[in-house]
């Protein structure tokens, strides 16, 4: 019989990591909106929110570059 290969670009692990990264990005942007200081110049808008967004982008980069063992 012929082997049926998965034609998806990424494996299940990659897609789960991408979804977690998107959620982290959304949480980071939401945190920035919670800042009560004028023009968002408080701790939430200038420090915590951008760090969470940066972590989300790093997770997205890792999700794209990671090799899924089930893909082989």
TrEMBL record:
Domain of life: Bacteria
One Pfam family named in its UniProt record: DUF3098
InterPro entries, A to Z: DUF3098
Keywords, ordered alphabetically: Membrane, Transmembrane, Transmembrane helix
Listed transmembrane segments: 15-34, 40-66
Name of the protein this chain belongs to: DUF3098 domain-containing protein
């Amino acid at each position: 019989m012929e082997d049926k290969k998965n034609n998806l670009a990424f494996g299940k692990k990659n897609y789960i990591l991408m979804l977690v990264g998107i959620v982290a990005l959304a949480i980071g942007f939401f945190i920035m909106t919670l800042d009560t200081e004028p023009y968002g110049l408080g701790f939430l808008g200038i420090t915590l929110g951008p760090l969470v967004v940066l972590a989300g982008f790093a997770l997205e980069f890792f999700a794209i570059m990671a090799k899924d063992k089930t893909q082989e």
